[in-house]
Amino acid sequence: xxxxxxxxxxxxxxALLAAEKTEAEMxxxxxxxxxxxxxxxxxxxxxxxxxxxxDRKLTESTDRLPNELREKYKKNDNGRxxxxxxxxxxxxxSTLMLVDFVQESFGIDSSKTQIxxxxxxxxxxxxxxxxxxxxxxxxxxxxxxSENSIDLIVSGQAVHxxxxxxxxxxxxxxxxxxxGLLALYGYRTHEFEDENAEKIKQExxxxxxxxxxxxxxxxxxxxxxDIFEELKTLYPNAERDDSFTDHLESTIDHYAGYLSSWCAYxxxxxxxxxxxxxxxxxxxKLKEIFPGDTLVKTTxxxxxxxxxxxx
Length: 311
Fold this sequence. Notes:
alpha/beta; 13 helices; 9 strands; Rossmann fold; nine-stranded mixed sheet; disordered N terminus; 311 residues
């Protein structure tokens, strides 16, 4: 290695450390092993419909390319796109959903604990070689992947944590191929269809969210409205899709597990370790309506933001 390459490598190392520190300060709770287990066990899986919508949008943008580029970037013989990145992949919930649509997927997250869990989960795949997990910072993707090489970049419930989203968008546009797609998606808090159960949950939430919810989570509360405005300012072709609502069933215990994975609850427990558990209280109240293993219906409203890389 010559001196020039060594200097570049050192500069990249310092930049990566700085970026990791910034993101780690905002998402440090995801380094906790217990939280990672709760996250993977109780966070809802993304419906396949979300990825079908994304796949259709990428197909449309690819079909609009000039003939030569359209032929170059079309799906392979297996009906899959070539490569995709899942930013803020966590335990791989989204990454594994990509395998039906993409030949090779890369899950990227700055949390070592989450990446370790993702790798353990992926061992059960039929073809684990098609998924690679990287413990890296999202802002460094333009250093990790070649220009014009990636078909699709997705990020589920994660981009709001990034300290410099404008820099992230710029990196995405650099590595996406012409007609490639950036898709940011998520959902608002799952709501009970039963009015009395939803009222109990709404009484529970302010006790945590007022003082203990990270400020970044407000972006989820408003369905990424502010983030969409950011995108529209930088990329006028940005679009959004709010058409999909998922309907789920779970027990009260499972729903309480979902609430226990919230950052706000984890922060609350750190400050009030000796207090009566606020989550036990809400679970008991909900079980008065839905006892035992009774299944309760909930809904989740999804949103997807799109930016296509122009030719």
